[in-house]
Amino acid sequence: MNKIDTYLSIEELLSIPAISDIHMSEDGQRVAFVKNTADWEENTYRDSIVIYEKDKGECTPFTEGTSPLWSPDSKRLAYLSAGEGNSGNQIFVESIDGDGRVRITDEKEGVIQFKWDPSGKGVYYVALSQESEEIKKRREKYGDFHYVGKDYRNHCLWYVELIEQVPYQLTEGRDFHIQEFDVSSDGDKVVVMAAPSPDGEDGQNGELYLLDRPTGELRKLDGDKVVGGNVCFSPQTTKVCYTASLREKEYYKTHIMDSTLEIYDFKNGERIQPLLYFDHAVVPIRWTAKGILLMWQDKTNYRIGLLSGDGKLDMISGKSDGCIMEASITEDGNHLAYRKAAPNETFEVYADGEKITNENALLQGRLTSKREVISWSSSDGLEIEGILTTPKDVDWNDKHPLLVFIHGGPDWASFPIHSSCFNEKYPVELFIEKGFIVLEPNYRGSSGYGNDFLKANYRNLGIGDYEDVISGVDTLVDRGIADQARVGVMGWSQGGFISAFCSTYSDRFKAASVGGGISNWVTNYVNTDLPSFIRMHVGDTPWNDPEIYAKASPTTYIQSAFTPTLIQHGEKDARVPIPNAYELYKGLKDMGVETELVVFDGMGYSSDKPGIHRAIMEQNLSWFLRWLVD
Asked: What is the mean pLDDT of residues 615-627?
Protein backbone atom coordinates (compact mmCIF):
# COMPACT_ATOMS: atom_id res chain seq x y z
CA MET A 1 0.00 0.00 0.00
CA ASN A 2 1.32 3.45 -0.90
CA LYS A 3 1.66 6.03 1.86
CA ILE A 4 -0.91 8.17 0.09
CA ASP A 5 -3.50 5.51 0.97
CA THR A 6 -2.69 5.50 4.70
CA TYR A 7 -3.02 7.62 7.79
CA LEU A 8 0.09 8.75 9.65
CA SER A 9 1.62 6.02 11.78
CA ILE A 10 2.10 6.44 15.52
CA GLU A 11 5.76 7.28 15.03
CA GLU A 12 4.89 9.80 12.30
CA LEU A 13 2.28 11.43 14.55
CA LEU A 14 4.81 11.81 17.33
CA SER A 15 7.37 13.19 14.86
CA ILE A 16 5.28 16.23 13.92
CA PRO A 17 7.24 19.18 15.41
CA ALA A 18 5.74 21.27 18.19
CA ILE A 19 6.23 25.03 17.73
CA SER A 20 6.64 27.44 20.66
CA ASP A 21 8.55 30.44 22.07
CA ILE A 22 7.78 32.84 19.21
CA HIS A 23 9.50 36.24 19.35
CA MET A 24 9.36 39.09 16.82
CA SER A 25 12.35 41.46 16.60
CA GLU A 26 11.64 45.12 17.37
CA ASP A 27 12.42 46.18 13.79
CA GLY A 28 9.86 43.66 12.51
CA GLN A 29 12.39 42.01 10.22
CA ARG A 30 12.96 38.68 12.00
CA VAL A 31 11.06 36.06 13.94
CA ALA A 32 12.66 33.45 16.18
CA PHE A 33 10.81 30.36 17.36
CA VAL A 34 11.47 26.88 18.73
CA LYS A 35 10.74 23.54 17.08
CA ASN A 36 10.57 20.55 19.38
CA THR A 37 11.17 17.29 17.50
CA ALA A 38 11.58 13.62 18.37
CA ASP A 39 15.04 12.10 18.11
CA TRP A 40 14.21 8.42 17.79
CA GLU A 41 17.82 7.22 17.81
CA GLU A 42 18.55 8.88 21.14
CA ASN A 43 14.96 8.46 22.40
CA THR A 44 14.64 12.10 23.40
CA TYR A 45 13.04 15.37 22.29
CA ARG A 46 15.23 18.16 20.96
CA ASP A 47 14.59 21.90 20.91
CA SER A 48 15.96 23.84 17.96
CA ILE A 49 15.73 27.59 17.43
CA VAL A 50 14.69 28.67 13.94
CA ILE A 51 15.02 32.19 12.54
CA TYR A 52 12.84 33.72 9.84
CA GLU A 53 14.29 36.70 7.98
CA LYS A 54 11.76 38.80 6.13
CA ASP A 55 14.16 40.03 3.43
CA LYS A 56 15.11 36.44 2.56
CA GLY A 57 11.59 35.07 2.98
CA GLU A 58 12.81 31.83 4.51
CA CYS A 59 13.28 30.02 7.81
CA THR A 60 16.77 28.84 8.78
CA PRO A 61 17.81 26.54 11.66
CA PHE A 62 19.94 28.54 14.09
CA THR A 63 21.00 26.52 17.16
CA GLU A 64 19.76 24.19 19.86
CA GLY A 65 17.95 26.03 22.66
CA THR A 66 14.72 27.55 23.94
CA SER A 67 13.20 30.92 24.90
CA PRO A 68 14.78 33.05 22.13
CA LEU A 69 14.54 36.81 22.75
CA TRP A 70 15.76 39.51 20.37
CA SER A 71 17.80 42.35 21.84
CA PRO A 72 16.17 45.81 21.86
CA ASP A 73 18.30 46.82 18.82
CA SER A 74 17.27 43.58 16.98
CA LYS A 75 20.92 42.68 16.31
CA ARG A 76 21.46 39.93 18.89
CA LEU A 77 19.55 36.89 20.02
CA ALA A 78 19.59 35.66 23.61
CA TYR A 79 18.37 32.18 24.42
CA LEU A 80 18.57 29.34 26.93
CA SER A 81 20.70 26.32 26.20
CA ALA A 82 22.30 23.58 28.25
CA GLY A 83 25.60 24.50 29.84
CA GLU A 84 28.50 22.16 30.35
CA GLY A 85 28.11 19.31 32.82
CA ASN A 86 24.96 19.39 34.94
CA SER A 87 24.64 23.17 35.13
CA GLY A 88 21.16 23.33 33.58
CA ASN A 89 20.03 25.91 31.05
CA GLN A 90 22.19 29.02 30.80
CA ILE A 91 21.74 32.30 28.92
CA PHE A 92 23.69 32.65 25.71
CA VAL A 93 23.84 35.76 23.52
CA GLU A 94 24.71 35.54 19.86
CA SER A 95 25.11 38.26 17.27
CA ILE A 96 23.00 37.75 14.17
CA ASP A 97 25.93 38.75 11.94
CA GLY A 98 27.91 35.67 12.96
CA ASP A 99 30.34 37.11 15.54
CA GLY A 100 29.92 34.03 17.72
CA ARG A 101 28.08 33.40 20.95
CA VAL A 102 28.80 34.34 24.55
CA ARG A 103 27.60 32.49 27.64
CA ILE A 104 26.67 35.07 30.27
CA THR A 105 25.40 32.97 33.21
CA ASP A 106 26.76 30.06 35.19
CA GLU A 107 23.92 29.12 37.54
CA LYS A 108 24.42 25.68 39.06
CA GLU A 109 20.76 24.64 38.67
CA GLY A 110 20.18 26.74 35.57
CA VAL A 111 18.13 29.78 34.57
CA ILE A 112 14.32 29.64 34.67
CA GLN A 113 13.38 32.73 32.60
CA PHE A 114 14.91 36.02 31.51
CA LYS A 115 14.28 39.40 29.86
CA TRP A 116 16.55 41.93 28.21
CA ASP A 117 17.42 45.19 29.93
CA PRO A 118 15.79 47.77 27.55
CA SER A 119 19.23 49.41 27.19
CA GLY A 120 20.57 46.17 25.74
CA LYS A 121 23.50 46.23 28.19
CA GLY A 122 22.39 43.30 30.29
CA VAL A 123 19.77 40.73 31.16
CA TYR A 124 17.41 40.21 34.08
CA TYR A 125 16.83 36.56 34.91
CA VAL A 126 15.27 34.22 37.45
CA ALA A 127 17.28 31.45 39.10
CA LEU A 128 17.38 29.65 42.43
CA SER A 129 18.53 31.53 45.50
CA GLN A 130 21.83 30.62 47.07
CA GLU A 131 21.66 27.71 49.50
CA SER A 132 21.68 28.88 53.11
CA GLU A 133 24.61 27.94 55.34
CA GLU A 134 22.22 26.07 57.66
CA ILE A 135 20.95 23.84 54.83
CA LYS A 136 24.48 23.31 53.54
CA LYS A 137 25.62 22.06 56.96
CA ARG A 138 22.65 19.72 57.26
CA ARG A 139 23.23 18.33 53.79
CA GLU A 140 26.93 17.75 54.47
CA LYS A 141 26.04 15.90 57.68
CA TYR A 142 22.94 13.93 56.66
CA GLY A 143 22.88 13.94 52.85
CA ASP A 144 19.95 15.01 50.68
CA PHE A 145 16.65 15.32 52.56
CA HIS A 146 13.82 17.74 53.15
CA TYR A 147 11.23 18.57 55.75
CA VAL A 148 7.69 19.02 54.48
CA GLY A 149 7.09 22.75 54.02
CA LYS A 150 10.68 23.67 54.98
CA ASP A 151 14.15 24.07 53.53
CA TYR A 152 12.95 25.23 50.15
CA ARG A 153 14.98 27.45 47.83
CA ASN A 154 13.08 30.15 46.01
CA HIS A 155 13.49 31.58 42.53
CA CYS A 156 15.10 35.01 42.83
CA LEU A 157 15.67 37.90 40.43
CA TRP A 158 19.22 38.48 39.20
CA TYR A 159 20.87 40.94 36.83
CA VAL A 160 24.00 40.43 34.73
CA GLU A 161 25.75 42.83 32.37
CA LEU A 162 26.99 41.38 29.10
CA ILE A 163 30.49 42.88 29.49
CA GLU A 164 31.19 42.24 33.20
CA GLN A 165 29.23 38.98 33.40
CA VAL A 166 29.04 39.30 37.19
CA PRO A 167 25.52 38.42 38.43
CA TYR A 168 23.80 40.58 41.05
CA GLN A 169 20.99 39.16 43.16
CA LEU A 170 18.17 41.74 43.29
CA THR A 171 15.67 39.97 45.55
CA GLU A 172 16.09 37.90 48.70
CA GLY A 173 15.41 34.19 48.51
CA ARG A 174 13.51 33.44 51.71
CA ASP A 175 9.70 33.73 51.52
CA PHE A 176 9.88 35.40 48.09
CA HIS A 177 9.47 33.04 45.14
CA ILE A 178 9.30 34.85 41.78
CA GLN A 179 6.67 33.58 39.35
CA GLU A 180 6.68 36.31 36.66
CA PHE A 181 8.25 39.72 36.11
CA ASP A 182 8.49 42.59 33.63
CA VAL A 183 10.97 45.44 33.17
CA SER A 184 9.99 49.07 32.58
CA SER A 185 10.89 50.77 29.30
CA ASP A 186 13.62 52.85 31.01
CA GLY A 187 15.04 49.80 32.84
CA ASP A 188 14.74 51.44 36.26
CA LYS A 189 11.81 49.44 37.59
CA VAL A 190 10.82 45.79 37.70
CA VAL A 191 7.33 44.58 38.54
CA VAL A 192 7.44 41.19 40.18
CA MET A 193 4.77 38.58 40.84
CA ALA A 194 5.96 36.51 43.79
CA ALA A 195 4.60 33.85 46.14
CA PRO A 196 5.93 32.92 49.61
CA SER A 197 7.41 29.63 48.35
CA PRO A 198 7.68 27.35 45.29
CA ASP A 199 5.15 25.00 46.89
CA GLY A 200 2.14 24.69 44.58
CA GLU A 201 -0.08 25.34 47.60
CA ASP A 202 1.32 28.87 47.73
CA GLY A 203 0.35 29.60 44.14
CA GLN A 204 -2.77 31.44 45.27
CA ASN A 205 -0.82 33.57 47.74
CA GLY A 206 1.10 35.53 45.15
CA GLU A 207 1.51 39.31 45.43
CA LEU A 208 2.73 42.11 43.19
CA TYR A 209 5.85 44.09 44.08
CA LEU A 210 7.58 47.06 42.48
CA LEU A 211 11.38 47.01 42.56
CA ASP A 212 13.27 50.27 42.08
CA ARG A 213 16.57 49.07 40.71
CA PRO A 214 18.71 52.19 41.39
CA THR A 215 17.76 52.26 45.11
CA GLY A 216 16.94 48.59 45.66
CA GLU A 217 13.61 49.52 47.27
CA LEU A 218 10.97 46.78 47.01
CA ARG A 219 7.39 47.95 47.53
CA LYS A 220 4.38 45.67 47.83
CA LEU A 221 1.35 46.67 45.75
CA ASP A 222 -1.43 45.97 48.21
CA GLY A 223 -4.39 43.94 46.97
CA ASP A 224 -6.71 41.12 48.00
CA LYS A 225 -7.07 39.24 44.69
CA VAL A 226 -5.35 36.11 43.44
CA VAL A 227 -2.92 37.24 40.73
CA GLY A 228 -1.45 35.13 37.94
CA GLY A 229 -0.47 34.89 34.30
CA ASN A 230 1.80 37.41 32.62
CA VAL A 231 2.49 40.83 34.09
CA CYS A 232 3.10 43.81 31.75
CA PHE A 233 4.20 47.43 32.26
CA SER A 234 2.50 50.22 30.33
CA PRO A 235 4.87 52.08 27.95
CA GLN A 236 4.96 55.09 30.31
CA THR A 237 5.56 52.88 33.39
CA THR A 238 2.50 54.40 35.08
CA LYS A 239 0.42 51.21 35.11
CA VAL A 240 0.74 47.45 35.06
CA CYS A 241 -1.67 44.73 33.92
CA TYR A 242 -2.05 41.05 34.76
CA THR A 243 -4.73 38.40 35.34
CA ALA A 244 -6.61 38.59 38.66
CA SER A 245 -9.46 36.79 40.37
CA LEU A 246 -12.92 38.33 40.53
CA ARG A 247 -13.16 37.91 44.31
CA GLU A 248 -10.85 38.08 47.30
CA LYS A 249 -8.27 35.35 47.95
CA GLU A 250 -10.00 33.75 50.91
CA TYR A 251 -13.00 32.82 48.78
CA TYR A 252 -10.92 30.59 46.50
CA LYS A 253 -9.70 28.32 49.28
CA THR A 254 -12.96 26.43 48.79
CA HIS A 255 -14.24 27.65 45.40
CA ILE A 256 -13.19 27.32 41.77
CA MET A 257 -11.14 30.23 40.45
CA ASP A 258 -12.65 32.75 38.03
CA SER A 259 -10.52 35.57 36.67
CA THR A 260 -10.24 38.54 34.35
CA LEU A 261 -7.81 41.27 33.27
CA GLU A 262 -6.82 43.77 35.96
CA ILE A 263 -4.94 47.07 35.59
CA TYR A 264 -3.11 48.73 38.50
CA ASP A 265 -2.40 52.48 38.45
CA PHE A 266 0.80 53.39 40.31
CA LYS A 267 -0.23 57.02 40.73
CA ASN A 268 -3.37 56.46 42.76
CA GLY A 269 -3.27 52.76 43.63
CA GLU A 270 -6.54 52.17 41.76
CA ARG A 271 -7.27 48.72 40.35
CA ILE A 272 -9.79 48.30 37.54
CA GLN A 273 -11.13 45.24 35.73
CA PRO A 274 -12.24 46.66 32.35
CA LEU A 275 -13.41 43.41 30.75
CA LEU A 276 -15.97 42.14 33.26
CA TYR A 277 -18.54 42.23 30.47
CA PHE A 278 -16.24 40.01 28.45
CA ASP A 279 -17.11 36.53 29.70
CA HIS A 280 -13.73 34.93 29.09
CA ALA A 281 -10.46 34.64 31.03
CA VAL A 282 -7.91 36.83 29.28
CA VAL A 283 -4.10 36.86 29.40
CA PRO A 284 -2.06 40.01 28.62
CA ILE A 285 0.88 39.43 26.29
CA ARG A 286 2.41 42.92 25.98
CA TRP A 287 1.40 46.53 26.57
CA THR A 288 2.26 48.38 23.35
CA ALA A 289 1.92 51.95 22.12
CA LYS A 290 -1.38 50.88 20.50
CA GLY A 291 -2.79 49.08 23.53
CA ILE A 292 -2.57 45.81 25.42
CA LEU A 293 -2.24 42.70 23.27
CA LEU A 294 -4.54 40.10 24.82
CA MET A 295 -5.16 36.43 24.20
CA TRP A 296 -8.29 34.58 25.28
CA GLN A 297 -10.13 31.35 24.65
CA ASP A 298 -13.50 31.54 22.93
CA LYS A 299 -15.07 28.07 23.10
CA THR A 300 -13.05 25.95 20.65
CA ASN A 301 -10.91 28.84 19.42
CA TYR A 302 -8.19 31.08 20.81
CA ARG A 303 -8.26 34.75 19.78
CA ILE A 304 -6.10 37.85 20.12
CA GLY A 305 -6.98 41.54 20.22
CA LEU A 306 -5.78 44.98 21.33
CA LEU A 307 -7.36 46.75 24.30
CA SER A 308 -6.99 50.50 23.87
CA GLY A 309 -6.83 53.11 26.62
CA ASP A 310 -10.51 53.97 26.23
CA GLY A 311 -11.50 50.37 26.96
CA LYS A 312 -12.27 49.39 23.36
CA LEU A 313 -11.24 45.88 22.35
CA ASP A 314 -10.19 45.65 18.71
CA MET A 315 -10.19 42.10 17.39
CA ILE A 316 -7.11 40.99 15.49
CA SER A 317 -8.24 37.43 14.83
CA GLY A 318 -11.59 36.56 13.32
CA LYS A 319 -14.05 33.80 14.16
CA SER A 320 -12.83 31.64 11.29
CA ASP A 321 -9.13 32.02 12.08
CA GLY A 322 -8.85 28.95 14.31
CA CYS A 323 -6.58 28.76 17.35
CA ILE A 324 -3.97 31.46 17.91
CA MET A 325 -2.24 30.26 21.05
CA GLU A 326 0.92 32.34 21.24
CA ALA A 327 1.86 35.78 19.97
CA SER A 328 4.67 38.32 20.02
CA ILE A 329 4.28 42.01 19.18
CA THR A 330 6.71 44.91 18.86
CA GLU A 331 6.70 47.81 21.32
CA ASP A 332 5.18 50.18 18.76
CA GLY A 333 2.41 47.69 18.00
CA ASN A 334 3.21 47.64 14.28
CA HIS A 335 4.53 44.10 13.87
CA LEU A 336 2.97 40.86 15.08
CA ALA A 337 3.93 37.19 14.95
CA TYR A 338 1.91 34.26 16.23
CA ARG A 339 1.31 30.53 15.90
CA LYS A 340 -2.04 29.43 14.59
CA ALA A 341 -3.73 26.14 13.80
CA ALA A 342 -6.61 26.23 11.34
CA PRO A 343 -9.35 23.59 11.66
CA ASN A 344 -8.02 20.08 10.92
CA GLU A 345 -4.44 21.37 10.72
CA THR A 346 -1.41 21.62 12.99
CA PHE A 347 0.28 24.88 14.01
CA GLU A 348 2.06 27.24 11.63
CA VAL A 349 3.93 30.48 12.35
CA TYR A 350 2.68 33.77 10.89
CA ALA A 351 4.51 37.11 10.67
CA ASP A 352 2.49 40.26 9.92
CA GLY A 353 -0.28 38.09 8.52
CA GLU A 354 1.90 35.95 6.25
CA LYS A 355 2.42 32.23 6.87
CA ILE A 356 6.16 31.64 7.19
CA THR A 357 6.26 27.89 7.94
CA ASN A 358 4.85 24.85 6.19
CA GLU A 359 4.45 22.23 8.92
CA ASN A 360 1.24 20.89 7.39
CA ALA A 361 3.24 19.61 4.42
CA LEU A 362 3.73 16.51 6.58
CA LEU A 363 0.00 15.82 6.21
CA GLN A 364 -0.21 16.40 2.48
CA GLY A 365 -0.72 13.32 0.35
CA ARG A 366 -1.85 11.28 3.36
CA LEU A 367 -5.27 10.30 4.60
CA THR A 368 -6.40 12.55 7.44
CA SER A 369 -9.48 12.67 9.62
CA LYS A 370 -12.13 15.38 9.75
CA ARG A 371 -13.09 17.28 12.91
CA GLU A 372 -16.28 19.21 13.51
CA VAL A 373 -17.80 20.95 16.51
CA ILE A 374 -21.11 19.47 17.66
CA SER A 375 -23.32 20.27 20.63
CA TRP A 376 -25.93 18.57 22.79
CA SER A 377 -27.86 19.06 26.03
CA SER A 378 -26.75 17.34 29.21
CA SER A 379 -29.27 15.78 31.61
CA ASP A 380 -29.78 19.09 33.46
CA GLY A 381 -30.17 21.11 30.24
CA LEU A 382 -26.62 22.52 30.21
CA GLU A 383 -25.38 22.88 26.63
CA ILE A 384 -22.21 20.91 25.97
CA GLU A 385 -19.94 21.15 22.95
CA GLY A 386 -17.50 18.57 21.71
CA ILE A 387 -15.28 17.64 18.79
CA LEU A 388 -16.42 14.77 16.60
CA THR A 389 -13.64 13.18 14.56
CA THR A 390 -14.53 10.93 11.62
CA PRO A 391 -13.07 9.81 8.30
CA LYS A 392 -13.52 12.46 5.62
CA ASP A 393 -15.66 10.02 3.63
CA VAL A 394 -17.59 8.65 6.63
CA ASP A 395 -20.79 6.76 5.81
CA TRP A 396 -23.44 8.42 7.97
CA ASN A 397 -25.79 5.50 7.37
CA ASP A 398 -23.49 3.06 9.21
CA LYS A 399 -23.07 2.59 12.95
CA HIS A 400 -19.45 2.93 14.04
CA PRO A 401 -17.61 1.90 17.20
CA LEU A 402 -17.23 5.06 19.29
CA LEU A 403 -14.34 6.17 21.46
CA VAL A 404 -14.82 9.03 23.91
CA PHE A 405 -11.53 10.91 24.41
CA ILE A 406 -11.70 13.16 27.50
CA HIS A 407 -9.30 16.07 27.92
CA GLY A 408 -7.50 16.87 31.18
CA GLY A 409 -7.69 20.00 33.28
CA PRO A 410 -10.59 20.27 33.85
CA ASP A 411 -10.00 23.93 32.86
CA TRP A 412 -8.81 23.05 29.37
CA ALA A 413 -10.67 22.01 26.22
CA SER A 414 -10.55 19.97 23.04
CA PHE A 415 -10.17 21.83 19.75
CA PRO A 416 -10.96 20.95 16.10
CA ILE A 417 -7.30 20.95 15.11
CA HIS A 418 -4.98 18.07 14.24
CA SER A 419 -4.72 15.56 17.06
CA SER A 420 -0.92 15.77 17.27
CA CYS A 421 -1.05 19.35 18.59
CA PHE A 422 -1.74 18.49 22.24
CA ASN A 423 -2.00 14.72 22.29
CA GLU A 424 0.92 12.36 22.68
CA LYS A 425 -0.98 9.47 24.26
CA TYR A 426 -4.01 8.54 22.11
CA PRO A 427 -3.57 7.76 18.38
CA VAL A 428 -6.75 9.39 17.10
CA GLU A 429 -5.72 9.11 13.43
CA LEU A 430 -5.06 5.38 13.81
CA PHE A 431 -8.41 4.91 15.56
CA ILE A 432 -10.11 6.53 12.57
CA GLU A 433 -8.17 4.29 10.19
CA LYS A 434 -9.42 1.23 12.11
CA GLY A 435 -13.06 2.27 11.74
CA PHE A 436 -13.73 4.17 14.98
CA ILE A 437 -15.23 7.61 15.35
CA VAL A 438 -14.00 9.76 18.25
CA LEU A 439 -15.91 12.21 20.46
CA GLU A 440 -14.05 14.73 22.64
CA PRO A 441 -16.55 16.40 25.01
CA ASN A 442 -15.84 19.81 26.50
CA TYR A 443 -17.58 18.83 29.73
CA ARG A 444 -18.64 21.25 32.47
CA GLY A 445 -15.55 22.83 34.02
CA SER A 446 -13.84 23.20 30.64
CA SER A 447 -12.30 26.57 29.81
CA GLY A 448 -13.45 28.92 27.07
CA TYR A 449 -17.17 28.83 27.82
CA GLY A 450 -17.30 31.58 30.44
CA ASN A 451 -16.83 31.63 34.19
CA ASP A 452 -20.27 30.16 34.97
CA PHE A 453 -19.51 27.08 32.86
CA LEU A 454 -16.03 26.85 34.40
CA LYS A 455 -17.63 26.61 37.86
CA ALA A 456 -20.50 24.30 36.85
CA ASN A 457 -18.74 21.18 38.16
CA TYR A 458 -18.29 22.63 41.67
CA ARG A 459 -19.13 19.87 44.16
CA ASN A 460 -20.33 17.85 41.19
CA LEU A 461 -17.20 16.02 40.05
CA GLY A 462 -17.75 12.60 38.58
CA ILE A 463 -21.50 12.42 38.22
CA GLY A 464 -21.81 15.78 36.47
CA ASP A 465 -18.93 14.88 34.18
CA TYR A 466 -20.50 11.49 33.45
CA GLU A 467 -23.84 13.05 32.50
CA ASP A 468 -22.11 15.40 30.05
CA VAL A 469 -20.22 12.47 28.50
CA ILE A 470 -23.06 9.97 28.28
CA SER A 471 -25.51 12.54 26.89
CA GLY A 472 -23.01 13.12 24.06
CA VAL A 473 -22.79 9.38 23.46
CA ASP A 474 -26.59 9.15 23.39
CA THR A 475 -26.73 11.99 20.87
CA LEU A 476 -24.51 10.07 18.45
CA VAL A 477 -26.38 6.81 19.08
CA ASP A 478 -29.70 8.59 18.39
CA ARG A 479 -28.25 9.99 15.16
CA GLY A 480 -27.55 6.41 14.11
CA ILE A 481 -23.80 6.85 13.62
CA ALA A 482 -22.52 5.29 16.89
CA ASP A 483 -22.95 1.65 17.85
CA GLN A 484 -24.33 1.60 21.39
CA ALA A 485 -22.80 -1.83 22.01
CA ARG A 486 -19.27 -0.68 21.08
CA VAL A 487 -18.37 2.41 23.11
CA GLY A 488 -15.04 2.99 24.84
CA VAL A 489 -13.71 5.82 27.00
CA MET A 490 -10.17 7.12 27.51
CA GLY A 491 -8.30 10.10 28.92
CA TRP A 492 -5.31 11.26 30.98
CA SER A 493 -5.17 13.14 34.31
CA GLN A 494 -8.62 14.68 34.85
CA GLY A 495 -9.64 12.84 31.70
CA GLY A 496 -8.30 9.68 33.30
CA PHE A 497 -10.40 10.32 36.41
CA ILE A 498 -13.57 10.80 34.36
CA SER A 499 -12.75 7.65 32.36
CA ALA A 500 -12.32 5.71 35.61
CA PHE A 501 -15.61 7.11 36.92
CA CYS A 502 -17.41 6.16 33.71
CA SER A 503 -16.01 2.62 33.89
CA THR A 504 -17.13 1.94 37.48
CA TYR A 505 -20.30 4.05 37.70
CA SER A 506 -21.81 2.90 34.39
CA ASP A 507 -22.44 -0.25 32.38
CA ARG A 508 -22.46 1.69 29.10
CA PHE A 509 -18.79 1.26 28.18
CA LYS A 510 -17.29 -1.89 26.74
CA ALA A 511 -13.68 -0.83 27.44
CA ALA A 512 -11.84 1.98 29.22
CA SER A 513 -8.31 3.36 29.38
CA VAL A 514 -7.40 5.32 32.51
CA GLY A 515 -4.24 7.40 32.14
CA GLY A 516 -2.78 9.09 35.23
CA GLY A 517 -6.29 9.21 36.71
CA ILE A 518 -7.71 9.75 40.18
CA SER A 519 -9.48 6.70 41.56
CA ASN A 520 -10.12 7.88 45.12
CA TRP A 521 -10.23 11.57 46.00
CA VAL A 522 -9.11 10.95 49.61
CA THR A 523 -6.14 8.92 48.37
CA ASN A 524 -5.25 11.71 45.98
CA TYR A 525 -5.77 14.43 48.61
CA VAL A 526 -3.18 12.98 50.98
CA ASN A 527 -0.63 12.19 48.22
CA THR A 528 -0.90 14.98 45.66
CA ASP A 529 1.35 18.04 45.53
CA LEU A 530 -1.73 20.26 45.11
CA PRO A 531 -4.55 19.42 47.57
CA SER A 532 -5.82 23.00 47.21
CA PHE A 533 -7.07 22.07 43.72
CA ILE A 534 -9.33 19.46 45.31
CA ARG A 535 -10.63 21.78 48.02
CA MET A 536 -11.45 24.37 45.35
CA HIS A 537 -13.59 21.87 43.45
CA VAL A 538 -15.34 20.06 46.30
CA GLY A 539 -15.45 22.87 48.86
CA ASP A 540 -13.80 21.22 51.87
CA THR A 541 -11.34 18.66 53.18
CA PRO A 542 -12.14 14.93 53.29
CA TRP A 543 -12.14 15.09 57.08
CA ASN A 544 -14.93 17.68 57.16
CA ASP A 545 -16.97 16.35 54.21
CA PRO A 546 -16.21 12.67 53.54
CA GLU A 547 -19.51 12.23 51.69
CA ILE A 548 -18.62 14.50 48.79
CA TYR A 549 -15.25 12.75 48.38
CA ALA A 550 -16.94 9.35 48.31
CA LYS A 551 -19.61 10.49 45.85
CA ALA A 552 -16.97 11.67 43.37
CA SER A 553 -14.60 8.68 43.68
CA PRO A 554 -14.60 5.87 41.08
CA THR A 555 -13.68 3.30 43.74
CA THR A 556 -16.95 4.01 45.55
CA TYR A 557 -18.74 2.18 42.73
CA ILE A 558 -16.15 -0.59 42.29
CA GLN A 559 -18.54 -3.38 43.34
CA SER A 560 -20.72 -2.76 40.27
CA ALA A 561 -17.77 -2.37 37.85
CA PHE A 562 -17.39 -4.74 34.93
CA THR A 563 -15.75 -2.61 32.19
CA PRO A 564 -12.36 -4.00 31.04
CA THR A 565 -9.86 -1.30 31.99
CA LEU A 566 -6.31 -0.48 30.93
CA ILE A 567 -4.53 1.62 33.59
CA GLN A 568 -1.44 3.60 32.57
CA HIS A 569 0.45 5.72 35.08
CA GLY A 570 3.75 7.55 35.48
CA GLU A 571 5.74 6.28 38.45
CA LYS A 572 6.74 9.83 39.50
CA ASP A 573 3.45 11.65 38.83
CA ALA A 574 3.24 14.24 41.63
CA ARG A 575 -0.13 15.73 40.74
CA VAL A 576 -1.95 12.37 40.56
CA PRO A 577 0.37 10.04 42.49
CA ILE A 578 0.54 6.36 41.65
CA PRO A 579 -1.40 5.04 44.70
CA ASN A 580 -4.48 5.99 42.65
CA ALA A 581 -3.50 3.45 39.99
CA TYR A 582 -2.74 0.69 42.49
CA GLU A 583 -6.05 1.22 44.27
CA LEU A 584 -8.13 1.09 41.09
CA TYR A 585 -6.20 -1.93 39.80
CA LYS A 586 -6.60 -3.89 43.06
CA GLY A 587 -10.31 -3.04 43.28
CA LEU A 588 -11.05 -4.14 39.72
CA LYS A 589 -9.02 -7.30 40.17
CA ASP A 590 -10.91 -8.18 43.35
CA MET A 591 -14.18 -7.73 41.46
CA GLY A 592 -13.01 -10.07 38.72
CA VAL A 593 -12.88 -7.31 36.09
CA GLU A 594 -10.40 -7.71 33.23
CA THR A 595 -7.72 -5.11 33.87
CA GLU A 596 -4.09 -4.34 33.08
CA LEU A 597 -1.77 -1.93 34.87
CA VAL A 598 1.27 -0.42 33.14
CA VAL A 599 3.62 1.72 35.24
CA PHE A 600 6.17 3.83 33.34
CA ASP A 601 9.36 3.99 35.39
CA GLY A 602 10.65 7.47 36.12
CA MET A 603 7.79 9.18 34.30
CA GLY A 604 5.79 12.00 35.85
CA TYR A 605 2.65 13.42 34.25
CA SER A 606 4.27 13.00 30.85
CA SER A 607 7.60 11.83 29.48
CA ASP A 608 10.62 13.36 27.78
CA LYS A 609 11.12 10.14 25.82
CA PRO A 610 9.20 9.70 22.55
CA GLY A 611 9.59 5.95 22.90
CA ILE A 612 7.42 6.05 26.03
CA HIS A 613 4.72 7.99 24.20
CA ARG A 614 4.87 5.52 21.34
CA ALA A 615 4.38 2.65 23.82
CA ILE A 616 1.41 4.44 25.45
CA MET A 617 -0.24 4.96 22.06
CA GLU A 618 0.40 1.40 20.93
CA GLN A 619 -1.08 0.00 24.14
CA ASN A 620 -4.22 2.09 23.76
CA LEU A 621 -4.66 1.13 20.12
CA SER A 622 -4.35 -2.60 20.80
CA TRP A 623 -6.59 -2.36 23.91
CA PHE A 624 -9.55 -0.87 22.09
CA LEU A 625 -9.09 -3.04 19.02
CA ARG A 626 -9.22 -6.05 21.32
CA TRP A 627 -12.45 -5.09 23.07
CA LEU A 628 -14.38 -3.12 20.45
CA VAL A 629 -13.32 -4.54 17.09
CA ASP A 630 -11.61 -7.95 17.26
From this structure: 98
